[in-house]
């Protein structure tokens, strides 16, 4: 049985003038210890997916339909008291900005110890020992000193390491990392990602990595979901998606990577911008930006279909695949 099984998850926001759909029938599975990447531009629905999985959507957002089966339990129906036991204890989240996550008026030690004691019957001394152990695991120098410090006294990279240590405090089965290195320097980003990978492998923890960077996904994850305008447009093994992208949007994301451009040349961009939720175009949401779009693409919404070992929602790819099958059958 999968650790996490999401089926037809739809999230809506009740605005003053209308209700908009932020996630459209998202479905995917995550095995125990598996590492999954969720990729797309800003506005694709990546972070909303993470918040929905934790049931942390704030009004006016809400889960409209679908199920989130976590270890056999549909948490969309779970009362808040049960979710408080699952959050942190079974599912942990690493947010983009550690300065928002950490309480500025409490020391690192106070925050880690109180987190442990909220979920476990531990003495303050025992909780502090566990906190020290986790800080050592994330390679924090002088952990005894760090426990006495406040967040503002630490560097950005060190704060992010502490957030990861806090995510691992209660030995969760799943970590959701939402753009965990956005505010960090490039060299520190690489260190944090390598650390996260090693910790997940060593502790057999499942990982959902939410990012806009396909380069990071290629290094850390085993499978990838590519999202656009609240929909999954391509899903499959990370290596195959990177080496042979099927959807034009995925191809555009890969072409936009800096390493795809020669020194001195302009970086390649996908023309246009992600549509806003209140003005999603008819048919394929990507069609206004797609160089391969036909009349059918602007009229009909493509359904996700199996294409080799991947799943793709694209009229053009599905048509080419059907033509190939017809030729092979001749």
UniProtKB/TrEMBL annotation:
Species the sequence originates in: Thalassovita autumnalis
Gene3D superfamilies: P-loop containing nucleotide triphosphate hydrolases
UniProt-listed GO biological process terms: peptide transport; transmembrane transport
Subcellular location as annotated: Cell inner membrane
Pfam families: ABC_tran, oligo_HPY
A GO cellular component annotation in the UniProt record: plasma membrane
UniProt cross-references to CDD domains, sorted A to Z: ABC_NikE_OppD_transporters (cd03257)
Family: Belongs to the ABC transporter superfamily.
Protein name per the record: Stage 0 sporulation protein KD
Membrane topology term: Peripheral membrane protein
Annotated keywords: ATP-binding, Cell membrane, Membrane, Nucleotide-binding, Transport
Chain ranges of the ABC transporter domain: 6-254
Location, primary (coarse class): membrane
């Amino acid at each position: 049985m999968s650790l996490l099984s999401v089926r037809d998850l739809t999230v809506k926001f009740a605005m003053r003038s209308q209700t908009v759909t932020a996630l459209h029938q998202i479905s995917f599975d995550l095995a125990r210890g598996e590492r999954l990447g969720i990729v797309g531009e800003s506005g694709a629905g990546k972070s909303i997916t993470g918040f929905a999985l934790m049931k942390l959507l704030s009004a006016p957002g809400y889960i409209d339909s679908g199920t989130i089966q976590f270890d056999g339990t549909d948490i969309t129906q779970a009362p808040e008291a049960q979710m408080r036991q699952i959050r942190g204890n079974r599912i942990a989240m690493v947010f983009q900005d550690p300065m928002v996550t950490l309480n500025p008026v409490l020391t690192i030690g106070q925050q880690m110890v109180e987190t442990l004691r909220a979920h476990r019957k531990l003495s303050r001394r025992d909780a502090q020992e566990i906190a020290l152990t986790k800080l050592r695991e994330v390679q924090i120098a002088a952990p005894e000193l760090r426990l006495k410090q406040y967040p503002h006294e630490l560097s950005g990279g060190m704060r992010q390491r502490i957030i990861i240590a806090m995510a691992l405090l209660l030995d969760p089965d799943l970590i959701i990392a939402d753009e965990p290195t956005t505010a960090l320097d490039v060299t520190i980003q690489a260190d944090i990602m390598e650390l996260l990978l090693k910790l997940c492998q060593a502790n057999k923890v499942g990982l959902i990595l939410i990012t806009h960077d396909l380069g990071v996904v290629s290094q850390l994850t085993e499978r990838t979901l590519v999202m656009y305008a609240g929909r999954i447009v391509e899903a499959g093994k990370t290596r195959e998606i990177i080496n042979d992208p099927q959807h034009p949007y995925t191809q555009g994301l890969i072409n936009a990577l800096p390493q795809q451009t020669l020194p001195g040349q302009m970086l390649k961009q996908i023309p246009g911008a992600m549509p806003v939720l209140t003005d999603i175009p008819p048919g394929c949401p990507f069609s206004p930006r797609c160089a391969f779009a036909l009349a059918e693409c602007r009229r009909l919404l493509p359904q996700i279909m199996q294409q080799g070992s991947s799943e793709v929602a694209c009229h053009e790819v599905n048509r080419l695949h059907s033509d190939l099958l017809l030729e092979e059958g001749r």
